[in-house]
C-alpha cells in the first residue's frame, strides 16, 4: 500500500507532464514491474492514467471522493493534515480518531474516509454520509487548554468551515449556535467536538466534521427532506473535495494559531458576523429534555450563548439544540 500511495503522490505532483516508469522506479527504489502493477491497480480503482509508450504516465482524473495523495499535494499548512489516516471505508472517523489519540497520535493528524457507515452526531444523533460525495473527517488536536474552553473550538471550527466553503463556492453560510452551518436554513455541515482529558486539562480534542459537498439532493429524504442540503444541490457545481479539505485546514490553522495566542476574543467577531440565531426568539432544548424559550441576545466572551427570558432574566446556555420559526 505504501508504494502505491507514493506512486499516486508522484502522479499528483506531476500532473502537468508525463513521468516515466523508469523515473518512478528510481525515485521509489522499486522495480518497473512493481510500478506497472500498482498503476494497473490504481486504474482498476477508477483512476484514469494515461500511459504513453515513450513518455510515461500522467494522471488524468481520480474517482469521486478524496484520497490521501490529493489532500497532501499542494497542502499549504505548517502542521495540520501532514499526517493523514485514510481508508475508503470506516465506521466513523471520529471513533478511529479517538482511538488514535489514545495511542498518542500527534497534533494535526487527520482521519478521513469516503464512506462512513456509522457516522455520529451530537447527543447520540446519527450523521448521514453518502459514499464519495461528502466529506467525513476528524482532526486530532492537542491544545493546552482547560476543559471548559473546548466548546470554543467548535465555534472556531464553524468559522473555518464557513470561510472555506465561501472561498471554494462563493456561498455565504451562516452559523446556527453552536455548530450547524446553514445556507437558507438548510444544514450543509455538522461539527462534533469530543475530548480526552486528564484532571482539568485537555489531552486531546477530536473535531469531527461532515460536509455535504457533492451530495445529490435526492439523498436527503425522510427526516432530512428540506432540512439538509449540499454545495452541489445549491450551486449545481461539482467540487474537488480534497481541495476543500486543504482550504479548510489552512484557514483552521490560521484561526487556531490566533486563538491559542490571543484567546476566543480574537475569534468571536468572526463568529458573530455569521451568526444566524442572534436576535431571534428561540427554543432551547437541553440535554435531558428541559426546554427554555427566549431571545438569543448574543454569545459572551467565552462563546456561551446568552438567552433573555420573557421576564428579562438572562441565562447562559452551554450545550443544547436550538430552534426558531
Ligand atoms: P448534530 O447532532 O448537531 O446533528 C445531527 C442531526 O443532523 C441528525 O439528527 C439529523 O437530523 C441531521 N443530519 C444527519 N445527517 C445529516 C447530513 N448529512 N446533513 C445535514 N443534516 C444531517 C452534528 O451533529 C455533528 C455531525 C458530525 C459528523 C462528523 S462526520 C466525521 C466525524 N465522524 C463521525 O462519526 N462524526 C463526525
UniProtKB/TrEMBL annotation:
Keywords: ATP-binding, Biotin, DNA-binding, Ligase, Nucleotide-binding, Repressor, Transcription, Transcription regulation
PROSITE patterns: BPL_LPL_CATALYTIC
Domain of life: Bacteria
Residues that bind biotin: 116, 120-122, 187
DNA-binding region: 21-40
InterPro entries noted in UniProt: aa-tRNA-synth_II/BPL/LPL, Bifunct_BirA, Biotin_CoA_COase_ligase, BPL_C, BPL_LPL_catalytic, HTH_11, Transcriptional_repressor_C, WH-like_DNA-bd_sf
Catalysed conversion reaction: biotin + L-lysyl-[protein] + ATP = N(6)-biotinyl-L-lysyl-[protein] + AMP + diphosphate + H(+)
Stated name of the protein: Bifunctional ligase/repressor BirA
Encoding gene per record: birA
